[in-house]
Design a protein that fits this description.
mainly alpha
């Protein structure tokens, strides 16, 4: 997105695309999880269907396709997604997210700190957290941020701050509302409102760190506290859970590929922008020479 203002029609299209993906994702979550109370029982087949369809195919891949289109249309900026950072800075932000997320997890006094149980629950929740970050923060948050920045007539610094707040609030609120599509107790209003609070940590990570991977890590650490508290039996998680590891690996691969595709889109945008500047400078030089002669 250039510094030029987004036209009202394009702003409407931007929000419409983001909300459409959100609605599809929430509907899939309800059909495959909330409707059958999947989280209240052990059903490997239904859980696999839920993870693959709702979280990997829709939450991760479809969101990435939408984001790529919005990048191509210049309705959101690559910088909003952290796609123009150096690898060193990306690694530093991800490392900080691991330390910060783990610290926040421990400070919340979780039900257990047994390493294998925590690892298994972390891996089980990871595909869901990836989808949540892709839909609520990378897509919804960035879209509302772009529109707010465009419609704000304040000075540049205030415009940036206010637009980030709008994006963060939109992402956190819709993240909370999405839990109405889940099994009890996550679909209860008190829980929905409560879950909006820890999502602030994800919002801070995403909008200040500008890194999707870092946001996923923090979001997952914040989320597994509630998952651990709701597990009826921890004994099942005191052993390696290969199917869960496999699903998590597929989900991470989908995220990495999606981000790589978006990076290629960003590189093309930067290259095209550079070429346009070169052409513009040549035209300006030619006109100046013509005037001088």
């Amino acid at each position: 997105m250039s510094e030029e203002e987004i036209k009202p029609r394009n702003a409407l299209k931007l929000i419409a695309i983001a909300l459409l993906i959100y609605i599809i994702w929430v509907a899939a979550t309800y059909i495959l999880e909330g409707r059958i109370h999947l989280f209240e029982k052990v059903d490997p087949i239904d859980r696999m269907a839920y993870v693959v369809i709702a979280n990997i195919a829709i939450g991760t891949v479809l969101s990435a396709i939408a984001i790529r289109y919005l990048l191509k249309a210049q309705l959101i900026k690559p910088e909003q997604l952290g796609l123009s950072k150096s690898r060193l800075r990306t690694a530093a932000i991800i490392g900080s997210a691991v330390v910060g997320g783990l610290t926040l997890f421990v400070l919340q006094n979780p039900r257990t700190l047994e390493p294998l149980i925590v690892f298994n629950v972390f891996m089980q929740a990871l595909p869901v957290s990836i989808a949540e970050v892709m839909v609520c923060w990378a897509l919804i948050g960035s879209s509302f941020e772009s529109v707010a920045r465009n419609n704000n007539n304040n000075n540049n610094k205030r415009r940036i701050v206010s637009s980030v707040i709008v994006g963060a609030v939109a992402a956190s609120v819709l993240f909370g509302v999405y839990h109405y599509a889940h099994s009890p107790p996550f679909n209860q209003t008190t829980i929905v409102l409560f879950l909006m609070l820890p999502s602030i940590a994800t919002a801070v990570t995403f909008f200040l760190g500008r890194d999707i991977y870092a946001a996923v890590i923090v979001q997952n650490f914040m989320g597994i506290v509630g998952v651990l508290a709701g597990l009826p039996n921890l004994e099942v998680y005191r052993q390696p859970m290969v199917p869960i590891y496999a699903l998590s690996a597929v989900s991470v691969a989908a995220l990495v590929i999606s981000v790589s595709v978006m990076l290629k889109r960003t590189e093309k945008l930067i290259q095209n922008s550079s070429e346009q500047r070169v052409v513009s400078n040549k035209d300006r030089t030619t006109r100046e020479k013509g005037v001088a002669s």
